[in-house]
Amino acid sequence: DVKVTQSSRYLVKRTGEKVFLECVQDMDHENMFWYRQDPGLGLRLIYFSYDVKMKEKGDIPEGYSVSREKKERFSLILESASTNQTSMYLCASLARGSSYEQYFGPGTRLTVT
Amino acid sequence: ILNVEQSPQSLHVQEGDSTNFTCSFPSSNFYALHWYRWETAKSPEALFVMTLNGDEKKKGRISATLNTKEGYSYLYIKGSQPEDSATYLCASVRSQGNLIFGKGTKLSVKP
After folding, report:
1. Cα dihedral sign for B80, B83, B84, B86?
2. Rounded to 5, what percent of chain B is helix, strand, coil?
3. Which residues of A touch B51 (CB under 8 A)?
4. Among A23, A30, A100, which would you mutate to test the B interface (most chain B Cβ atoms within 10 Å of its Cβ)?
5. What distance in Å separates the CA atoms of residue B51 and residue A40, rounded to the nearest whole number?
6. How far apart are CA B45 and CA B62, in angstroms?
7. How far apart are CA B56 and CA A104, in angstroms?
8. pLDDT tens for each residue of B51-88
9. In whole angstroms, what is the distance from residue A24 CA to residue B56 CA?
10. What is the pLDDT of residues B30-61, one digit of tens each?
11. Taking CB atoms and an 8 Å limit, are B1 and A59 in contact across chains?
């Protein structure tokens, strides 16, 4: 079974703090994704990566950056957290050349106060 | 950005009822359509990956159909059970291989 793990289920940070959300997958997938989920808005793509050291902006990249130094790990970085970044963050991965089915982590609920 | 629309936004049914909901998506440049089930406190899990016009897929009491020419997919649940309570997401695959999601249909099944 594919396993995607995220470093924290719940996180509380203060405005202006630098925040790291970590995601690790154990199936050697090339592609990894970061989404946020907000009530009434559904899942929205923040950033994705096709390979190590490669990154692409998704639909809502503002205020975020990412890092992919190793194939299995994809980090989402909030350089200076703001209250409007309070959300549920989901990481996902998929194998290149597959049916595009994505495998999701359990999510991190981030609260910025 | 492609727009994927789902309806209804939420649905409350009694145990044993059959139900269905809709996903609409732009029919041009179609690659594939996914349905995911997202239960509370769990990760979204793929139900179906559909690629061909006229596709029908079934998993137990849940089935889905696909019409790529008119840009819609239906998800059916026969004889709903409380464990079917979840948010059902559909997503269209974009040219880069990533997904654009609808806002989901939240299903609540009362015993």
Report:
1. positive
2. 5, 55, 45
3. 99
4. A100
5. 27
6. 14
7. 25
8. 999 999 999 999 999 999 999 999 999 999 999 999 99
9. 34
10. 889 999 999 988 999 999 999 999 999 999 99
11. yes
